[in-house]
Design a protein that fits this description.
The chain has 256 residues and is an alpha+beta fold. The chain has eleven helices and seven strands. The strands form two sheets. A five-stranded mixed sheet has the order 2-1-5-3-4. A two-stranded antiparallel sheet has the order 6-7. The N terminus is likely disordered.
């Protein structure tokens, strides 16, 4: 791209009236940063990921961001778009642009590595802390456990298995923002899924983990996790299930 065109892309005063979009992209690292403006040509059926890709390929090759599948299967392209967490590959510019402008930033509640890329380690560390990992109830030589699709516990387990770890719910959660120890909706939803899986043998370990400080009882039930989940899952409902299960065990009730 010629230097004069690149300069126009980053400094212009264009708007949708002449076929461009004013895009403000957060640039920086763990030490802080600021927004940088790019004027991006509008295109038909343009997604926010298309916009970010155009900036990196045509205006500033140093822009750092993460993506993989481009079709809403991996979740790696999640970013804040006009202050809301979204999969950028499935978010069309026409739905979210405000007065010909877009503001794009890294996911909230996670450390920034560079520009639009966040460090996902704290997110996944909390999965482990919540015991949201499979606890085998049988060995390789044992017969497969029978799974009945219409069993109530199986229905609860199946309700959350489409989570793809995109951290949209984590970025949307105000409890995470105010309490860094909070395990977060994704980890707790996974814990609830495993708790209800007849093939998992970690029920007590899961309840022990999620009832500690920062666990399910820290949730304020504001519902942002469920509202923003791109896969239409219900983390808030799963967290409510964990609250019931931990309370029932506390008062001497059995599982189920």
């Amino acid at each position: 791209m010629p230097d004069e065109q690149r300069l126009a892309a980053t400094q212009g005063g264009s708007n949708e009236a002449n076929g461009t979009l004013a895009v403000y992209v957060w640039r920086g690292d763990e030490n802080g940063g600021t927004e940088q403006r790019f004027d991006v040509p509008r295109q038909e059926s343009q997604t926010v990921l298309d916009v970010v890709t155009w900036i990196q390929q045509q205006a500033d090759a140093s822009l750092t961001y993460r993506f993989a599948c481009r079709v809403g299967m991996c979740g790696s392209c999640a970013m804040m778009v006009n202050d809301e967490p979204r999969w950028t590959c499935r978010t069309h510019v026409g739905r979210v642009a405000r007065n010909g402008e877009l503001h794009i930033a890294p996911l909230r509640n996670l450390p920034v590595i560079k520009d639009l890329v966040t460090d996902m380690d704290p997110f996944f560390d909390k999965w482990v802390k919540a015991e949201a990992i499979h606890h085998p109830s049988a060995g390789r030589s044992d017969a497969f456990a029978a799974v009945t699709p219409d069993d109530p516990e199986r229905i609860e387990a199946s309700a959350g298995i489409e989570c793809i770890n995109c951290a949209i719910c984590y970025a949307a959660c105000d409890t995470v923002a105010g309490n860094t120890d909070y395990l977060g909706p994704a980890a707790l939803q996974r814990a609830w899924t495993l708790y209800n899986d007849s093939r998992d043998d970690g029920g007590d370990a899961i309840l022990d983990a999620v009832s500690q400080s920062g666990g399910c009882h820290s949730c304020h039930s504001m519902g942002s996790c469920t509202h923003y989940c791109p896969n239409d899952l219900d983390p808030m409902g799963a967290i409510a299930g964990l609250k019931r299960a931990t309370a029932k065990r506390f008062f001497g009730g059995g599982r189920g």
